[in-house]
Design brief:
CATH superfamily: Aldolase class I
Number of domains: 1
Helix content: 25-40%
Oligomer: single chain
Number of helices: 14
Strand content: 5-15%
CATH architecture: Alpha-Beta Barrel
Length: 379
């Protein structure tokens, strides 16, 4: 999974003053669907070759120029895939973004293309932050999801090589019923690798992930409580499509423990077994972004979506100005105004959290409905 909202704190730092009605902090660009992997949970349903209608170099350069039209600071362009390294013009696009003042972060796949030489070239182009996906603490689990033998040790090795090249490294983990019990051991790998951020994706049933089992609301609550604990070991912890984590963090900041269940107890014990007692202040990140609020996604063919997991086309960058789409599309305006239905609409945390709009749509067909993955019942 290469779609990594809320990415790169080093570049997002200092952007808390950004008016999210006027511009996003992050623009995710699925630069290609070509990828050498076949991950079970891939949102993009990546394939071995590019699709014929992907944005070519000229269209891609115009798209990057359009991002510079947002008010300063320009949004961060997170180049994902597929595998972004399969774009022949990647270096040109990164260099052009730098020229027009658009910061770039990268989410490559772990394949033979990710060599030390290539990493050095990307650093020389000015890319400072990169993310890799690690979906298990063992070859059996990680490679069972990734579909490539030997991919687990290659990923752990790549984390170290990226750190050695001077990247700020983010580890992305999708949590499912298949790997949830390995989260404490994954946290140990995150710490031992020197990664700066651990971003945990709560599964949404789209793309290839539609055949996999999501966790239930009470299990999600336990995972959020565990992730707060994990944030006390020196690395930033945040979530994707799990905005209820922000509520849990807020509770802890207010001295409210919140409810926990047997899954949390197991994960908490495992975390101490793996890493010892908590060693640092919490670094849980709780920026109030959500699908369509501070975040927007552009597909390989130029279609604009509120997020990578929310398949509602808002326009296309070939014909529509992304600035206008983000600021004026009725759905995005309603999302930013927190005009939600069900318990999300009456929740006292609807601004801080707001629920997963992607999961609401996947469950009901309505992007403004309540998020069925949240256990909290507002008064």
């Amino acid at each position: 999974m290469s779609d990594c909202p809320d990415t790169v704190p080093a570049q997002v730092a200092g952007r808390s003053h950004v008016d999210l009605d006027r511009r996003p902090m992050l623009v995710f660009w699925e630069s290609t669907r070509a990828c050498g992997l076949a991950c079970q949970h891939c949102r993009a349903e990546a394939q071995s070759t590019p699709v014929p209608s992907e944005l070519d170099t000229a269209a891609s350069l115009r798209f990057i120029d359009s991002l510079a039209a947002f008010e300063r600071p320009a949004p961060i362009l997170v180049i994902t895939g597929g595998d972004a390294l399969m774009r022949h013009d990647l270096d040109l696009l990164i260099a052009h973004a730098h020229t027009v003042g658009v910061p770039v972060a990268l989410a490559p796949s772990v394949t033979p293309l990710l060599t030390d030489e290539r990493l050095g070239e990307l650093r020389d182009l000015g890319v400072k932050v990169a993310s890799l996906s690690l979906d298990g603490a063992s070859p059996t689990t990680h490679e069972g999801l990734r579909g490539i033998d030997g991919h687990f040790p290659a990923t752990v090795d790549a984390l170290g090589r990226m750190r050695a090249q001077g990247f700020t490294v983010q580890v992305n983990t999708v949590v499912t019923s298949q790997n949830v019990h390995e989260l404490p051991a994954i946290a140990r790998i995150v710490r031992d690798s020197g990664a700066a951020i651990w971003e945990v994706f709560f599964l949404v049933n789209v793309g290839r992930g539609s055949s996999m089992l999501e966790l239930g609301p009470d299990q999600n609550e336990d995972v959020c409580q565990f992730l707060y604990d994990a944030s006390q070991y020196g690395f930033v912890v945040r979530t994707v499509e799990g905005p209820m984590f922000r509520r849990v963090v807020h509770w802890h900041e207010q001295g409210i423990a919140g409810p926990t269940g047997p899954l949390y107890e197991q994960l908490a014990r495992g975390l101490v077994d793996q890493l010892g007692p908590p060693s640092a202040p919490s670094r849980a990140q709780t920026k109030g972004t959500r699908d369509g609020r501070g975040i927007v996604f552009v597909s390989a063919t130029g279609d604009v979506y509120p997020a990578g997991f929310l398949p509602i086309v808002l326009g296309n960058v070939r014909d529509d100005a992304i600035v206008d789409v983000y600021r004026d599309h009725p759905l995005l305006r309603r999302i930013r105004a927190a005009e939600f239905g069900g318990k999300c609409g009456r929740c006292d945390y609807r601004e801080l959290c707001g629920g997963s709009r992607s999961r609401a749509f996947a469950a009901t067909g309505d992007a403004l409905a309540e998020d069925p993955a949240c256990a909290y019942e507002p008064a």
